[in-house]
Structure formats: structure tokens, C-alpha cells
Amino acid sequence: MRLGVTLCASLALGASAAPVAKQALPGEFVEFKTADGWLLKAAFAPPAGAKTTMILLHGTGQRKEDRKRLAFPLAKAGYGVMAVDLRGHGESRTTPEGEVITWKKLRATTKAANDFLDMSHDADAAIRWLVAKGVPEETIGLIGAEVGGSVAIRYAATHPKVPLVAMLSPGMAWQEVLTVNALRAMKRPTPTPLLMIYSEADKRSSKEAPILFSFAKTAVGDNWATLISVPQERGTRMLGAQPDLIQRIIAWIENPAAPPIPEASTQAPVAAPLSQADGH
After folding, report:
1. Neighbours of 106 (CB within 10 A)
2. Residue 25 to residue 44: CA distance in whole angstroms
3. What is the pLDDT of residue 222?
4. Which pLDDT value is given to residue 14?
5. What is the pTM of this model?
6. Can you tell me whether residue 203 is helix, strand or coil?
7. Residue ranges per domain, the chain?
8. CA atoms 216, 221, 224, 229: torsion sign
9. CB 3.0 to 4.6 Å from 62: which of 66, 234, 245, 267, for a disulfide?
């Protein structure tokens, strides 16, 4: 009998000592449909009070969980956070026709049919879902990495209520999603603050980000365009290579007109001739 009690006690102790699984992302998991029929999965943590809600858009071949390095600090600071699996990625892989695909089957073309360009529907569906839940549209910003940044700026170009946009490793044509004309379209009476962050080790973005930044300054003005460079990595991997970068992003969201915290270089290299841009 004593053996049975001891065994039960040991099992109870073992159960109580079992490690608690870490939360993949802050908030709860949600889903919503796009205008063209994709069912998207996302994670949403609501804002504290009237704080901004940031939608996080990943790069090619990634998923919403890859945004956790930024999502948790944003949520801890009281900002709303929605990390989305874009079409063909993560848990959002079932087409409107019912076929389950991977991102490798998505089309990237300069012609009309570009699945990555259609991700603007994904951003729109996320914003529509948030608005339906009572989040004011004018408090919903966008942070995108690589092609996610291209989608973000193109969406903001035609939706002036977007309060701010951050692009990690911006490019002129990630997956043939062009950005120069979108930046030109940001020129309007009420400027939308823009943040661009690139790595000096990223051969593509280090060449293209300063050119895009010149268009950003022309569109929204010097006070509302910020460029930050870091030494290593690309996309959201820059957040791990440069630990203070997360707090600098949060500081920019809090006050996008303020200059960046001068820890890393913010001096833009000389821009290449504008004829190299995609807008022509």
C-alpha cells in the first residue's frame, strides 16, 4: 500500500514538474478570408488602450512564428500585434480551389498574375478583421520583411489611413513586387512615416535601400523618413544580430518623427542614379 502511495506521489510530482510549453506568439490564434478566397491564419494580441496595432508581414518562405522576436517585445510594450501567415506560407497553404500548396508554387512575375503581388489582399483582410473587432483603422500600422515590406508599402500607397510603415531589408522588386512607384504615391497632404532598415552585409538591400530611401524622403519629407543600417543578416534575422534594434523600432513607433537612436550607422550611402529604379 505504501508503495502505491509513493508511486502515485511520484507520478503527481512528475506531472507538476513537466515543463510548460512556450507560447509561439503573443495573443490568440485567429483566421479570416481574403477577398479572393484564401483562408489565412494569424495570431493577434490586442493593444493596451489606444496604442497602435502592428501587422507583421514575413518574407518569402517564412511564417508568422518567425516574427516572435519582434512580436513579444511589441506586445510587452502595450502595442497590438498581429502576425500573419501570408498565402502559401505556414498554416495558410490551402488555395481557394482547395489545393494545399507550398510557397514554392507561388508565381512571381512582372506580368499581371503575380501571387506575391496578390498578398495585398492578405494585408487588407487582416486590417478588415481588426476593424471588425473594434480596432480603429487609423491605428493599424504595417511592418514587413523583404517581400512583406514590398506588400506593406504598396498597400499603404493606396490606403492613406495606414499610420506608419516599417520595411526590413527593403528592395525594389522582391518577387517582382515593385516598390518605387508605391513610394512615389506616398506623397500626400498628411505624410505617412516610413522606416527602412537594411544590413550592410546584404548585397541586394544595401544597394537598393538607399535609393528607395531617397524616394521616401521626396514623398513624405525628411522628418518622416528614417533609414537605419546594421552590420549583419537580412530581414527579421537582423533583430537577433543587432539586439538593440528591437527597442529602436519600438522607439520609432512611439515617435516616428524623432531621429533614430544613434547606436548603429544611419548614414545612407550615396544613392545610385534614379534610372536604376523600377519606376519609369
Report:
1. 18
2. 8
3. 93
4. 41
5. 0.84
6. helix
7. 23-274
8. positive
9. 66
